[in-house]
């Protein structure tokens, strides 16, 4: 039994609405931030800005790209969550198959993993970071 079957219809609708609202907010933010440019073009635009301080400009570009990468990853997670909601797999951890607690979904409706698996993933990512 998936968690989707345990969540009542009004709560499922609220979760879907939260996902769609966050998706729209991220798309608007990303468009505003990049002015509709591709990731490569946006990076080029940041580098081309007038400044005598090349190291600061490079650091700004790295922060800027990390920000847009984070937004794009969150958009991808939202898309997956919406697909899982449509196919009855929403609320089930993609790593271990356990139900994701409703409290976690209400705070982060795009969550694809239970808290334990998310912590394992984050630990691996931090260990792999330079």
Distance between the termini: 41 Å
The rough form would be described as: flat
Weakly predicted, low-confidence segments:
none
Report the sheet with the most strands, covering strand number, pairing sense and barrel closure: none
The helix/strand class is mainly alpha
β-strand number: 0
Amount of helix: over 70%
Mean pLDDT: 82
Give the helix tally. Answer: 6
* Proportion of residues in extended strands: under 5%
The topology string of helices and strands comes to HHHHHH
Q: Briefly, what is this?
A:
With 130 residues, the chain is mainly α. It contains 6 helices and no strands. Helix 2 packs antiparallel against helix 4 (54-86) and helix 3 (39-48) runs antiparallel to helix 4.
Structural notes for this entry:
By secondary structure, the chain is mainly α. The chain contains 6 helices and no strands. Helix 2 packs antiparallel against helix 4 and helix 3 runs antiparallel to helix 4.
Which helices and strands appear, and what pairs or packs with what?
Blueprint: H1 3-6, H2 9-34, H3 39-48, H4 54-86, H5 102-107, H6 115-128
Quickly list its features.
130 residues, mainly alpha
């Amino acid at each position: 039994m998936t968690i989707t079957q345990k969540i009542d219809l009004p709560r499922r609708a609220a979760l879907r609405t939260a996902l769609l609202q966050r998706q729209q907010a991220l798309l608007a933010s990303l468009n505003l931030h990049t002015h509709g440019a591709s990731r490569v073009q946006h990076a080029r635009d940041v580098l081309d800005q007038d400044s005598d301080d090349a190291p600061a400009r490079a650091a700004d570009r790295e922060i800027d790209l990390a920000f847009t990468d984070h937004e794009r990853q969150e958009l991808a997670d939202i898309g997956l969550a919406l697909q899982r909601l449509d196919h009855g797999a929403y609320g089930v951890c993609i790593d271990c198959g356990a139900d994701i607690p409703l409290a976690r979904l209400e705070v982060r409706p795009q969550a694809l993993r239970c808290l334990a698996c998310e912590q394992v993933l984050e630990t691996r990512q931090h260990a792999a970071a330079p």
